[in-house]
Amino acid sequence: MLLLSPSQLRAARALLNWSRADLSGYAGVSEHTIHRFENEITFPEERTITKIHDVLVRAGIELIGNNGVVLQKDVVRTITGDLVFVRVLEDIITSLQGTKKSEALFACVRDKVSPPPVVEMYNRLRKQGIRMRSLVHEKDSYLMGNLNEYRCLPNQFFHNNTIVIYDNKVATMILDPLTGADASAVIVKNQHVAAAQRNLFELIWSISKPPALSVADKKYDDVRQN
């Protein structure tokens, strides 16, 4: 059974107001492949359909049966499995592409513990023109971005559950109580919730001090090495 049918794909694009070019850019699938699938000329490989399916779901599309399509306005979604934070970063790229203000706000992050797949996704965000600002621990000096992208949180206010605010969404990382690793992410899609969290972030940003230096031996691709 296919994850989605050609008619569902056509309907989903219409609901999202996406062109084939838009979907191609988001999913990493050629316009030609999308055209042939939508018109039932050929059916792509399962992994290609999975890419398309996942992008639509992240955009708020719910597929019902073989033909139904619904665009959910307010959604609470949980992501589990491997590389959870990478999938959150993928959702940031999908959500912010084409928006007027492309910015992702990160609270309680540590650049030093970011594994290579996460660093790669951060670089992708930045290449897409998505601005990043982060609240970090006051004693954290391993900063891979420009210093003006960070503000320092006092120890008593820092926690290990990273929160990301972007577009009309708020993603909260949930840690495994035994390992301390990211076990899941809860993404709330609601413009009022996102606006409230963004205002709180801006308040904290406005009263927090910027870091004095960075000792990071690696930087993001668009940051000059000192």
Task: Report what the structure shows.
- By secondary structure, the chain is of the alpha+beta class.
- It folds into two domains: 6-71, lambda repressor-like DNA-binding domains (434 Repressor (Amino-terminal Domain)); 75-207, Endonuclease Chain A (Endonuclease, Chain A, 2-Layer Sandwich).
- Helix content is 36%, strand content 22%.
- The protein has helices spanning 6-16, 20-27, 31-38, 46-58, 84-96, 116-127, 191-207, and strands at 61-64, 68-71, 75-80, 103-107, 131-137, 150-153, 163-166, 169-175, 182-189.
- A hairpin with a 2-residue loop joins strand 7 and strand 8 (169-175).
- Helix 5 packs parallel to helix 6.
- The mean pLDDT is 91.
Would you kindly provide a brief summary of this structure?
The protein is built from seven helices and nine strands.
Globally, the shape reads elongated
Which range does the strand content fall in?
A: 15-25%
The total beta strand count reads: 9
The CATH topology assignment of the largest domain is: Endonuclease, Chain A
Query: Helix share of residues?
Result: 25-40%
Poorly predicted ranges = none
Overall pLDDT level = 91
> How many domains?
2
User: Which secondary-structure class do the elements indicate?
Assistant: alpha+beta
Q: Strand order, main sheet: write it out.
A: 3-9-8-7-4-5-6
Please identify which CATH superfamily of the largest domain we are dealing with. Answer: Endonuclease Chain A
